[in-house]
């Protein structure tokens, strides 16, 4: 599959999946966030530096959907942080590979964080490196690596990206 | 740069002892400048690097001591040098990359160059061009070497001090803290990844937070929410004689750590509020002593963390009176097996800017910072566990915070 200039037939479905995914988080529907993933999914938020150097640690690291569900419960019931919202702006998807029902895609994102008092900052920019399982009636992330352009996290990262 | 005269000091901090801390210390620019001079550039040992970050001759890392830029370099003979990352000519940064390898360090501005010990070895057009211009005869290269730090390594950590008359690193740490430091660094180390947490608060609010066991089970509700009960645990706080450094730890009492890990997992498993994926709580008693948590601080800016099998070096970096950063360097050991690496990666979910039991620490300092207006002349209260700075078995104590202020007061002359 071409890296540049492809018009892959999966582009509309992947773009729609990413739009739904971002809308779910931005609408604070975090209870539904794990539903975008397969049961055996891998999810990781890392930095461009760690990713380029092959350093494996993540800011958030999950090796199945249950760990994502646990994170949502923790955010709702255990962790203490000031009320805040994200606004994702997601680029069109680029299909970068895949075999069979698995599609690999890369997408850019920006996230603006708005605090309860109205303070706004560009909180994160980066790439989603996704492996998407298209075998079911709805495409799901089998793997989602969130690669942040910067090493720096302002204050804390509670809501997932 | 103005620094407060010592005559002004008594009015800033009238109380003797370390139980009442003036809020002014958290946002005063003059205090900040004085800290740079007296603490970070004074007789303290500051974390510079892991040895494994600069394994080969010429390998360097650009870092800071406090907010002062420095470079730490592995020399040909295997020793480690450190010097200010600032050209002696007109002050440009010398190393712009975080890591690299260099035989010599050449400034991009006018190409003055320095060897791996920070000695000035080259000045572009020193003799001028076609007999015109150039440096006057009074100019001596040897007068313009970079300011060096004294360095020392311990258990794979590289430390540096600007004060060449400072006591040795081992004397600075003392045997108890030194031993606890070696406990979590006993083998060749490898880095598992980095990130940086930006704090909208003075660096000391984070340093205090690290030394504050009082807040742990109150602010961080993860374990209680998920009903991760612990077996009877013992633990305590060790404070070194100077007050500067501390260790807080908890350990299994009368049972094996492996059993506690199993038990925590089982309870969490069986409870309706339990974790759906209890493998987060798997653990290995890798040091064989039943200690499941050890937080160690070396004044002023190093924190070494063992939370179960999550091992992290944290460096606190001041960035102005009301801003700081914490650089998190996750590590494991060269001989880790795949399962142990998996444990470390899973448990990393508990720490750092997104950590289940630490994300709040990124915010509480800012809650104090934002409430500072109106506090001139006011003082915070650090009286839990008395007014001393001795080691204590209870964790309902602020003894190690008082220790911090004891060391701080004496270095700052306040
Ligand atoms: S400032 Fe470095 S050579 Fe001029
Ligand atoms: Fe904490």
Can you offer a commentary on this structure?
The complex is a heterodimer of chains A (161) and B (414). Helices cover 22% and strands 42% of the residues of chain A. With 161 residues, chain A is an alpha+beta fold. The radius of gyration of chain A is 15 Å and the shape is globular. The model of chain A has no long low-confidence stretch (mean pLDDT 95). With 414 residues, chain B is of the alpha+beta class. Chain B has two domains: 46-153, Rieske [2Fe-2S] iron-sulphur domain (Rieske Iron-sulfur Protein, 3-layer Sandwich); 176-412, Alpha-Beta Complex (Naphthalene 1,2-dioxygenase Alpha Subunit, Chain A, domain 1), CATH 3.90.380.10. Chain B has helices at 9-12, 29-40, 169-183, 203-210, 216-219, 222-225, 257-270, 338-347, 361-370, 399-412; strands at 20-22, 46-50, 59-65, 68-74, 80-84, 99-101, 105-106, 113-114, 120-122, 148-154, 157-161, 189-199, 233-239, 246-252, 291-298, 302-307, 310-318, 324-333, 379-381. Chain B has a seven-stranded antiparallel β-sheet with strand order 2-11-10-5-4-3-6. Chain B has a seven-stranded antiparallel β-sheet with strand order 12-18-17-16-15-14-13, sandwiched between helices. Chain B starts with 8 loop residues before the first helix and ends with a helix. Mean pLDDT of chain B is 92; it is low at 1-9. The A-B interface holds A 45-47, 49-50, 55-64, 66-67, 69-71, 73-74, 77-82, 151-158 and B 191-200, 219, 221-222, 224-226, 273, 275-277, 280, 325, 330, 341, 344-346, 348-349, 352-354, 356, 359-360, 362-363, 366. Strand 8 of chain A pairs parallel with strand 12 (189-199) of chain B, so a sheet runs across the interface. Fe (ii) ion binds at residues 209, 215-216, 219-220, 358, 361 of chain B.
């Amino acid at each position: 599959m071409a890296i540049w200039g492809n018009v892959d037939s999966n582009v509309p479905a992947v773009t729609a999946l990413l739009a739904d995914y971002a809308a779910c988080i931005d609408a604070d529907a975090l209870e539904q966030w794990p539903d975008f993933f397969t049961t055996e999914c891998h999810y990781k938020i890392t930095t461009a530096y760690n990713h380029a150097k092959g350093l494996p640690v993540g800011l958030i690291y999950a090796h199945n959907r249950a760990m994502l569900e646990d994170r949502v419960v923790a955010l709702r019931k255990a962790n203490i942080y000031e009320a805040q919202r994200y606004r994702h702006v997601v680029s069109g998807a680029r299909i970068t590979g895949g075999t069979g029902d698995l599609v690999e895609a890369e997408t850019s994102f920006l996230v603006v964080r708005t605090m309860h008092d109205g303070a706004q900052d560009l909180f994160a920019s980066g790439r989603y490196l996704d492996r998407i399982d298209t075998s079911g009636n709805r495409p799901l992330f089998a793997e989602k690596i969130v690669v942040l352009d910067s090493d720096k996290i302002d204050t804390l990262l509670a809501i997932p990206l | 740069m103005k620094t407060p005269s010592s005559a002004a000091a008594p009015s800033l901090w009238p109380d003797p002892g370390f139980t009442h801390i003036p809020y002014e210390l958290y946002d005063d620019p003059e205090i900040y400048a004085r800290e740079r001079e007296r603490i970070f550039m004074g007789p303290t040992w500051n974390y510079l690097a892991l040895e494994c970050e600069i394994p080969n001759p010429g390998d360097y890392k650009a870092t800071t001591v406090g907010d002062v830029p420095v470079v730490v370099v592995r020399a040909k003979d295997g020793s480690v040098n450190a010097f200010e990352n600032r050209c002696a000519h007109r002050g440009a940064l010398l190393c712009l990359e975080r890591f690299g390898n260099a035989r010599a360090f050449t400034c991009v501005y006018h190409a003055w160059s320095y060897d791996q010990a920070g000695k000035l070895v080259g000045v572009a057009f020193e003799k001028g061009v076609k007999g015109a211009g150039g440096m006057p005869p009074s100019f001596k290269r040897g007068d313009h070497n970079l300011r060096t730090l004294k360095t020392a390594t311990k258990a794979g950590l590289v430390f540096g001090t600007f004060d060449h008359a400072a006591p040795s690193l081992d004397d600075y740490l003392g045997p108890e803290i030194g031993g606890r430091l070696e406990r979590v660094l006993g083998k060749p180390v490898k880095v598992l990844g980095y990130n940086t947490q930006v704090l909208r608060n003075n660096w000391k609010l984070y340093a205090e937070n690290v030394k504050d066991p009082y807040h742990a089970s109150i602010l961080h509700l993860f374990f209680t929410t998920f009903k991760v009960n612990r077996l009877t645990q013992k633990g305590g706080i060790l404070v070194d004689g100077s007050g500067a450094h501390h260790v807080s730890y908890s350990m299994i009492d009368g049972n094996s750590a492996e059993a506690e890990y199993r038990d925590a997992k089982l309870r969490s498993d069986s409870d309706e509020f339990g974790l759906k994926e209890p493998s987060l709580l798997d653990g290995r008693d890798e040091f064989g002593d039943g200690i499941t948590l050890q937080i160690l601080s070396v004044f002023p800016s190093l924190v070494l963390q063992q939370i179960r099998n999550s091992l992290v070096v944290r460096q606190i970096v001041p960035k102005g009176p009301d801003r700081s950063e914490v650089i998190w360097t996750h590590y494991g050991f060269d001989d880790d097996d795949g399962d142990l690496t998996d444990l470390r990666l899973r448990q990393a979910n508990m720490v750092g800017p997104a950590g289940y039991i630490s994300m709040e620490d990124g915010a509480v300092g800012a809650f104090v910072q934002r409430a500072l207006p109106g506090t001139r002349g006011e003082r915070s209260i650090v009286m839990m566990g008395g007014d001393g700075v001795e080691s204590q078995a209870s964790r309902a104590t602020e003894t190690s915070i008082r220790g911090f202020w004891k060391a701080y007061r004496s270095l700052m002359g306040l």
